[in-house]
Amino acid sequence: MDGALRFTQVSKSFGTARRKVTALAEVSFTISTGRITGLIGPDGAGKTTLMRLAACLLMPDAGTITVLGLDGKSQAQAIQSQIGYMPQRFGLYEDLTVRENLNLYADLQGLAHTERKERYDALLALTALGPFGDRRAGQLSGGMKQKLGLACALLRVPRLLLLDEPTVGVDPISRRELWAIIQGLREQGVSVLISTSYMDEAERCDDIILLHEGKVLAQGPPSAFTTPLEGRCFFVQSAELSRRLLQQRLQAEPAVLDARLETSGVRVLLAEGAAPPSVAGAEWHRVPPHFADAFFDRLHAERASPDPVVTPTIRVSPQEISKPETVLSVANLNRFFGSFHAVKDVSFTVHRGEVFGLLGANGAGKSTTFRMLCGLLPASSGVLNVAGQDLRTAPAEARRQIGYVAQKFSLYANLSVAQNLSFFASAYGLGGARRRERLAWAAEEFALAPYLAQNAGDLPLGFKQRLALAAALLHEPPILFLDEPTSGVDPLARTEFWRRINAYSAAGTTVLVTTHFMEEAEYCDHLVLMSLGEVLASGTPAEIRARAATPERPNPTMEEAFIALIEAHEATLRRSR
Amino acid sequence: MWRRLYALVIKELLALLRDKASRFVLIGPPLVQLLVFGYAATYDLNNIPFVVYNEDPGYASRELLARFDGTPIFRRIATLQSEELISAFIDRKDALMAIHIDRQFTRNLLSGRTGSVQVIIDGRNSNTAAIALGYVNSILFAFDQEWAATHSMPNPPANLVLRAWYNPNLLSRWFVVPGIIGLLTLVVTMLVTALSIARERETGTYDQLLVTPLRPLEVLLGKVIPGFLIGAVEASFISLMAVLWFRVPFTGSVLALVLGLFLFLFSAIGVGLMISALSATQQQGLLGAFLFLVPAIILSGFATPIANMPQAIQYVTLADPLRYLMVILRGTFLQGDGIAELSSQFWPLAAIGLISMLTASLFARRKMY
Amino acid sequence: MQLQRLSGLMRKEFLQILRDPSALGIAFAMPLFLLLLFGYGVSLDAEHVPIAVVVEHPSPLADTLIGGLDQSRYFRPVRFSDIIAARTALKEREVNGIFWLRSDFVRKALDGEGADVSVIVNGVDANTARLVESYLQQVWQIWLLQQQREQASVLTLPIGGELRIWFNPALRSRDYLVPGLIAVIMTLIGALLTALVVAREWERGTMEALMASPVTMAEIIIGKLLPYFVLGMGGMALSVAMAIGLFAVPLHGNLLVLTLASALFLLVALGMGLLISSVAKNQFVAGQIAIVVTFLPAFILSGFVFDIRSMPTIIQFITHLIGARFFVSILQSIFLAGNVWSVILPNAAALGVMAVVFLGLTLRRTRKRLD
Fold this sequence. Notes:
The structure holds three protein chains of three kinds. Chain A is α/β, with parallel strands linked by helices. Helix content of chain A is about 35%, strand content about 25%. A six-stranded mixed beta sheet of chain A has the order 6-7-8-3-9-10, with helices on both faces. A six-stranded mixed beta sheet of chain A has the order 19-20-21-17-22-23, sandwiched between helices. A four-stranded antiparallel beta sheet of chain A has the order 2-1-4-5. The N and C termini of chain A lie far apart (about 55 Å). A four-stranded mixed beta sheet of chain B has the order 2-1-3-4, with helices on both faces. In chain B, helix 11 runs antiparallel to helix 12 (about 280-300) and helix 11 runs antiparallel to helix 14. Chain B starts with a helix and ends with a helix. The mean pLDDT of chain B is about 85. Chain C folds into two domains: about 5-40 and about 170-365, no CATH class; about 50-150, abc type-2 transporter like domain (abc type-2 transporter like fold, 3-Layer(aba) Sandwich). Helices cover about 65% and strands about 10% of the residues of chain C. In chain C, strand 1, helix 3 (about 60-70) and strand 2 (about 75-80) form a beta-alpha-beta unit. In chain C, helix 2 packs parallel to helix 10, helix 7 (about 175-195) packs antiparallel against helix 15 (about 325-335) and helix 11 runs antiparallel to helix 15 (about 325-335). The radius of gyration of chain C is 28 Å and the shape is elongated. At the B-C interface, helix 2, strand 4, helix 6, strand 5 and helix 7 of B face helix 2, helix 5, strand 4, helix 6 and strand 5 of C. Strand 5 (about 160-165) of chain B pairs parallel with strand 4 (about 115-120) of chain C.
């Protein structure tokens, strides 16, 4: 026996004979013992199916699976008593407390009562959940839930740990803590298979399996992916152009495969053998390649060239754009849930055409603020003004001004993609040629065409997000509220998404967005950093980064800045208590 | 407005009917239940098993027993030779009734004395027992009259002439099958409405609806209309089946029936949506549906007459929409009633519908936090 | 099967029950509410039935007859001066029947040719109509016997029928309806408690995490069953206590036998709920199925109001699919007749078979797999 997990020619498909969807086709790979293996791939590549097969929750149509030397078909029970598995949506019992959840899984995994105290203490310390032992799981923030889920899967140190997108919707601080736990496990000899859509996480793995359309594209350590790109990655800055204009210019160059905003400049990946094109006043600095670059490179080859971004019909006259008109403002907003002060005295204003980012740890009050702005939740006190009105009291017609994508997928799961789109088109009163045009646009723009007949609930996570976004954009609203619109979406789709958002904002659409991807924060014109319900910092991305600059780290990335600011704030709060 | 409403209705119908299991639940069981319940729900007695212990050697007892054997209501399953055996048959529920004829029966009758017959009935199901008792009484009474006539005894001073209006043969089916129309219609509307808002709340789609320009009234109508469509289709189908398959006569005004069903659907959907709007989870919605459905059916007068209930409970039944529909159904089917005769039933339905719809719209608008 | 895992699952289920009071409500508040409502509300005993009395020519003889009606607890005679008004009252559902003595009543009765007394009943409610007819006949017979005695003449009613009702001599319908109600209510409670619990685990994603742990499917099912079983038995005890204490239904049989039979039936009801839950995998559909297959079948096909012996053979056959049917039979016997083993044992055996089938199917349906 070699390796913790071995797939040999494994195929799996779903659906009826009439409409068959192949999830995995003749997949073969081996995962070595005691290493962290990352499972990376775009949306719908078959990552979740692979995880479930490895946990013996699905049976392959063909091929064999060997887990820890045991046969997946006949020895499922024995395998399940030796592995740890954390599904994408971990099954925490929300009406049970943290400790009760741990007790349940300890019983299920046969952890002796004598070992428990020590193990709980270790895990609660590791996850920093100690103070919340008696809190109900339903009242934990998203990141805390994920950590608790991981703790439950780790009660008895498994020999193989399967983690399916454990960091979706988790803030950078919690993400860092999760990774510290996972790396600690490797020290204990645990083999880990983890799927993720964060490219920086991929780099922390020992080994990477790149999955695409149900096939393994490549397997190897991250360096094996990045080394061939040596000399093709650049950091570009220009004194003449704004970052975003520079990025647009660069993107238009045929030699440029990808251009992304990064701190004060643009990160560029050149096509193989291409020389840096000359763009107005740009300075090119060679930088070491990241895994993200490799991912783009590989998938560009696989995928057809990215669709040209359709410039949205401009419905605001240029004069209107030029003057900084306030379209949304919040003053002294407060919200209590019982005695819990969820949003504390928050004030900010958003101008037309701005991309306005709301950052913060899980549970900082971002979603609550959004829900109040959209009129879904009454404010306890404070003044709300969205397009001149408070949506809670404004007539229904006023809501035509906004589009809203909720954090949790909230379209009709048992309606097909086409039916969902057509329903929301009607709900927004679209008719005739415009309706046909918009529906066609949605199908093409979000690459939903192959899924139109499928039930929305059965879509892969990334496509659910796209569908939700498509539904919110159908009526081309002047104001967009996007609550973590890119969680669980692959990097390619995310880049396209941001290109689209920037094009919208250039055309006069105002966008409010929350995200846990700090590199995305760079795409915003203005950021508000929230922590524990209050506004911690506000300003342009550069201003936010500058606030966290220290002599040791004069030029922090957004993620570093975020972690530093939030931790400092939480520390002062803890001290003052 | 119309386009949005149309889209909401289509969405709701798709959400209900796209799922195979859900579609089956809405169509299959009501049809099967109509057939099964239509035949099962009867108070008429047929083939009631009885045993006989006849000690009398004379001909009068044989003539009397021949009357029991001759009716389809009773079926003799055994003729016993000892009195002890009677209790065994009745305890085991093998026989509902035992007839014990005294050794002197014929002799006494012929000599002008009273001939004695003992009839024992299993009272565990008191209704069956009461009905059987009635039959036994009429058989004995008829025997009396004939014996008196043939043995030249004087006529009794008067005769009882019994007639039943609207249902001359007193067939339970004529009474029960129209009731089943109401029962199944109520169940179907509950299925369609009681969980629907709660489901949207639980899956988050309700929030998504609330940020669209849809008006609360439109959202509510979007739930009401599909309930109406499905309820109306099933109610008309079951009504047709009642006439064509079960041969229940329809003597009244079709218009009155249609108006009655319309108002009933209005109030039942109102109650269903009210339950749904008040519940935060589907579990609560299901509980609410049962807490309404079960009393509504039991107290509607479907199986047991409202007049038999204590006064306090009779007041409670005034809030039960099914109670009014029962009268409308039986009135139009059997009593030949029209709109004028049933007007006292229409307005309470409209009132219940109005109140529950208002409550539903009030709570549907309230967002759950 | 491992005790630690099982007890862990059961503890979790109990905690969830305690946190969400709706389960406790189903188990205890619902039987209380339903039994109170139905115990008082459901009755087939027609009493004080309004009857229109039309006496066209009053006389002492007519008074003796009407006096019989007045004294009967079954009737509430309402005087009408003429038959037209009485007919209108019948049509408008104000009275259930008409008792009509024509003007020639006395003359014909004394002539010896015999007068006809017309009785018209509203036949829409066939059952009540039949009971009314039967009660009227009784009043009539008593009157005849009375006449016979007073005039000391010859016999007009030669047979002395001695009618005896066993087990429920007063023919109180409540005595048989209340035990039947317990069966119907427990069907509801059993199914409601469990119909959503497995579907909920699927919907919330907890099932996937459970399945990837070493737990076996049997443990999951039993871990669900036992807590709700305890709860259901509590509800059952409450119902029985109310039946005896509040509704004064006599309990002739043994309490232990009743408990055992109830336990068996509860397994059937819970098993049905679990099966629904595991078939549906989503709460909405599970809820719909639960509404459709529990209440009405138990209400109509269990023999609780409608006597199974009167149903067509094929329907009688179908009633064997309804667990409540067997339990109603057991309950009516234990309460009203005593430990009649010849009734209890076969029905209990049938319940046992159903419990095994439901739970077995549930176990088969919920394999430890996602596809």
